[in-house]
UniProtKB/TrEMBL annotation:
InterPro entries documented for this protein: TPR-like_helical_dom_sf
Name this polypeptide is given: Tetratricopeptide repeat protein
Stored SUPFAM superfamilies: TPR-like
Organism expressing this protein natively: Sedimentitalea arenosa
Top-level taxon: Bacteria
Gene3D superfamilies linked to this entry: Tetratricopeptide repeat domain
Length: 282
């Protein structure tokens, strides 16, 4: 009789052990799934930042074939296409993101950015108009300013640029854009001030230095500004100043600046040399 009691107990023990084994397997499987999610998230981040943009496009395209409804993968594909300068495809990919469940206001801002890169200003304006006014980000206002510039709505442009500057800790780039806006509308002194501020924020921003020279030259001020510059940069800025002077009819001044640029450059300055030869031959 005791043997009969032992058998059910053994069976119960075996069932318990089997149940424990199954639970253990489930726990291990869940653990591996968690690891895979973390690994995939890390890989997605790598693909969006340091990977070759076209490799990232291939990666997200393959991932979407297996999980077509995942908005994070569609975002990754759209961002990678823009990084790869495939702007038409990038805009189309961001349109898909915006149409998916879980899309955010920031996705619309990214779509507007892609549309601007694709030269579709009207579509970008329409997209930005659909962004809620409570979505106040640096990128949104920077794009709003660019659209206002395209429409020559200067008061709006200034207001949007001013807001954007206040929403970033690195305003040099947007200050440079704002200065260029002032330059194109003929506000040369305003442009000069903004380019100077951009350079103070980021002394390595050569575009702002070149634009500053253009703004000064437009006012027939042909002396280089007192800003940080390397010898090669100095030569290139002198060349820009020379061309500005020549364009405005101050040919002798331009010729002298070209010669100074050639003498200043630490190597052979082919571009300035060609400009001087063309001037002399004419």
């Amino acid at each position: 009789m005791r043997h009969l009691i032992v058998i059910p107990l053994l069976l119960a023990g075996a069932t318990t052990l089997s149940g424990c084994a199954e639970k253990a397997d489930e726990t291990v499987e869940r653990a591996f799934q968690d690891v895979n999610v973390v690994d995939e998230s890390d890989l997605n981040d790598v693909m969006l930042t340091v990977a070759d943009p076209n490799e990232a496009v291939d990666y997200f395209s393959r991932s979407l074939q297996n999980s077509p409804g995942r908005i994070d993968l569609q975002r990754g594909l759209a961002a990678s296409l823009v990084r790869a300068k495939r702007n038409t495809e990038g805009a189309a990919a961001w349109e898909k993101v915006v149409a998916m469940n879980g899309a955010t206001a920031d996705d619309k801002v990214q779509l507007a950015d892609a549309q601007i890169r694709n030269g579709d200003w009207k579509a970008a304006e329409k997209t930005l108009d659909s962004v809620p006014p409570t979505h106040e980000t640096f990128k949104r206002y920077r794009l709003e300013a660019m659209v206002a510039d395209a429409n020559k709505e200067w008061d709006k442009s200034d207001s949007f640029y001013d807001t954007a500057v206040g929403l970033t800790t690195k305003p040099a780039g947007v200050m440079n854009n704002w200065g260029y806006s002032k330059l194109t509308r003929g506000d040369f002194s305003g442009a000069e001030r903004l380019f100077g501020e951009a350079i103070r924020q980021d002394p390595s921003l050569f575009t702002a230095k070149n634009n500053l020279v253009l703004a000064r030259g437009a006012q027939r001020n042909y002396s280089l500004p007192v800003i940080p510059m390397e010898q090669t940069e100095r030569a290139e800025l002198l060349h820009t100043m020379a061309l500005t002077a020549i364009k405005q009819g101050d040919v002798k001044t331009g010729e002298g600046l070209l010669r100074e640029a050639i003498d200043t450059h630490p190597q052979h300055f082919e571009e300035a040399t060609r400009s001087l030869r063309a001037l002399e031959s004419s």
